[in-house]
Amino acid sequence: xxxxTIEMEKAAVILKLLGDKTRLTIMKLIDNQACCVCEFxxxxxxSQPSISQHLRKLKDLGLVKEERKGQxxxxxxxxxxxxxxxxxxxxxxxxxxxxxxxxxxENGTRISCC
Amino acid sequence: xxxxTIEMEKAAVILKLLGDKTRLTIMKLIDNQACCVCEFxxxxxxSQPSISQHLRKLKDLGLVKEERKGQxxxxxxxxxxxxxxxxxxxxxxxxxxxxxxxxxxENGTRISCC
DNA sequence: TTAGTATATAACTATTTGCTTATATATACA
DNA sequence: TGTATATATAAGCAAATAGTTATATACTAA
Lengths: 114, 114
Description:
Chain A has 114 residues and is α+β, with helices and mostly antiparallel strands. Chain A is built from 6 helices and 3 strands, in the order ααβααββαα. The first copy, chain A, has a 3-stranded antiparallel β-sheet with strand order 1-3-2. In chain A, strand 2 (64-69) and strand 3 (72-77) form a beta hairpin. The radius of gyration of chain A is 14 Å and the shape is globular. Chain A binds a DNA duplex (30 and 30 nucleotides) through helix 4. Chains A, B: Keywords: DNA-binding, Transcription, Transcription regulation.
């Protein structure tokens, strides 16, 4: 079986994006479910613009898609994207991060949106 | 089948290293064969210290191993390393880069070491 | 021992990165 | 409307990064 390949340039750009712990965790989380910005702000304890900027970079590459629901915007991995097959084996090897969402619920710090 | 996982922290560090085009290409090249520093200097057209510093970072994480042969040091991917299973699916999706070595031979610019 | 070659390390610099605060935009709802 | 909430963008800054030149170290061979 011939593996499909990806340009080196593009691969490097994607790997660099995934090489940030915050973005990598976001990607692992939204590979399973859609999350909104406010959840990430709680989870990572950083400012809202910081999260927005991470999401912007992921979106610019087409790795994530967004869906507005009222005043919230939900982000999830875009599995239709041509590079998803490249990142999937990476995400699959990462430990599940859903406990971070559970923690939010338990603390009651999970915001109104979800 | 249960996939083995890797800590998020470690995964991010490895991906960041691979997120540089020079290092990524080096890794792809030495997944097949051992190469010495002087070859990389020719291939990437950067200074020798620049290559040495890239290799140092890869070695610090244990991703590559070195073998001295006389005055030359040959680098190759360390397939015994515990993280090799993490990076292998990534490298496998990259286009083969061996033509870069062939070009060196054809140009006669491939240095004495090889 | 000495000269030449290969590689590593140190020191410096320009660029990139990820964060912050301040502000703009978009939606919901009284 | 007008106010509150969610998100995006702009601007600025400190830290990290990848390159450079200069120099040190390690090995070869005369």
